[in-house]
Amino acid sequence: MDIGVRKKYVIAALLGLVAVLLLWLVKDESSPLVKYFEPNPVPLNELWTGLHFHIFLLMLAFRIPDNTGHWFFYSAVFIQWFLIGLLVTWLRSRK
User: Fold this and answer.
1) Residue 80: how many other CB atoms lie within 10 Å
2) From CA 31, how far away is CA 89, in angstroms rounded?
3) Is residue 26 within 8 Å of residue 52, measured between CB atoms?
4) DSSP-based helix, strand, coil % in the chain, nearest 5
5) pLDDT (tens digit per residue) in 13-59
6) 22, 40, 56, 82: which has the highest count of C-beta atoms within 10 A?
C-alpha cells in the first residue's frame, strides 16, 4: 500500500501537533490537568519527560533563556515528532 507524499506530510504534521498537545496537557502550568499531574508522579508524565530529556539538554547547552525557552521547547517537540511521523510513514509505504 503506497501512501501519497502529501498524506505522509499530513500524518507527520498531525503526529507533531498531537505530541505538542499532549505535552501541554501533561507539563504546562496553564493546562487544566496540571493539578493532577503535579503532586503525584504519574507514569505518563515521567515517560513524556524522559522522551524529551535531550531537548532539555539542548536548551542547557545553548543557554536558551526562560522567556524564549518555552517556544523553543514546543518547536523542538513538534519537529521531533514530525520527523518520527515521516520516518514511520516512509517505512510503512516501503512494504
Assistant:
1) 16
2) 30
3) no
4) 75, 0, 25
5) 999 999 999 888 877 777 777 777 666 666 776 777 788 888 888 88
6) 82
